[in-house]
Amino acid sequence: MNTPVIPIDSWRHVFKLDPDKEIGDEALDRICMSGSDAIAVGGSSGVTFENTVDLLARIRRYELPVVLEVSNLDAVVPGFDAYLIPMVLNTPNPDWIIGQHQRAIQQYGYMIPWDLLIPEGYIILNPDATAAKLTEADAGITTAETVAHAQVADKLMRLPIVYVEYSGMYGDMERVSKVKRSLSQAQLFYGGGIRTTEQARAAAAVAHTVVVGNIVYEDLDAAIATVEAVKAAPLN
Fold it and tell me: Binding of Mg(2+): at which residues (predicted)?
């Protein structure tokens, strides 16, 4: 495994901000000064070069890492600390595993900042999520199949991140825990449906890194409270 350009292994809490969603200056200030370890920028739809540039410029006023999760080649913006490259493992459509990646490299390989790329093996487990529908992910897989997908990413592909994504719904923490116990070198990210400190604490106990997204736009105070909850939780 190549060592990521930024120390993701020290990240416990990450806020994920969607360029296609409105966030005021005061709210952004609270998010960026909350003590979260990093900001990830990305979304499944409506992400453009223009709204990504705008959000990056606003976040850059603060001293914390900011990474772009690449979901749309037209929205790739220079200036991020790193670029997360998702590979959806539980889809029968190879386009979302390697196809789009190959075409992007063929077209833009000469200008790709290879040392800033961090590949992540995505396992999408909410069938109603936009990301699941877009990528045709088989979100109905069993726990055993989920663990096997994670081990493909960890042990066979040697990806630095395995990302268990429930996107919009709170997931099965027992399943997430089994995934974590199966990993030998990858960092386990969990994202999806965290709206309370109790949920944040439970996720932090079974995943290396907890990603908090939608609640930022629904209940800012609750979102901010997840930072301390995650940081205080022991990792099992």
Answer: 18, 44
233 near 199, Cβ under 8 Å? no
Q: Does the annotation flag 180 for ligand binding? A: no
pLDDT tens track of the chain, all 236 residues?
456 668 899 999 999 999 999 999 999 999 999 999 999 999 878 889 999 999 999 999 999 999 999 988 888 899 999 999 999 999 999 999 998 899 889 988 888 899 999 999 999 999 999 999 999 999 999 999 999 999 999 999 999 999 999 998 999 999 999 999 999 999 999 999 999 999 999 999 999 999 999 999 999 999 999 999 999 988 87
**Residue 167 annotated in ligand binding:** yes
Q: Tell me: is residue 193 an annotated ligand-binding position.
A: yes
Binding site annotation covers 191?
Answer: no
Distance CA 42, CA 54 (A): 13
How crowded is the C-beta side of 59, counted as CA atoms within 13 Å?
28
Q: Which residue has the tokens 């629904």?
A: 218
Q: Is 41 annotated as a binding residue?
A: no
126 in a known ligand binding site: no
- CA-based angle 53:215:35, to the nearest 5? 70
Q: Whole-prediction pTM value?
A: 0.94
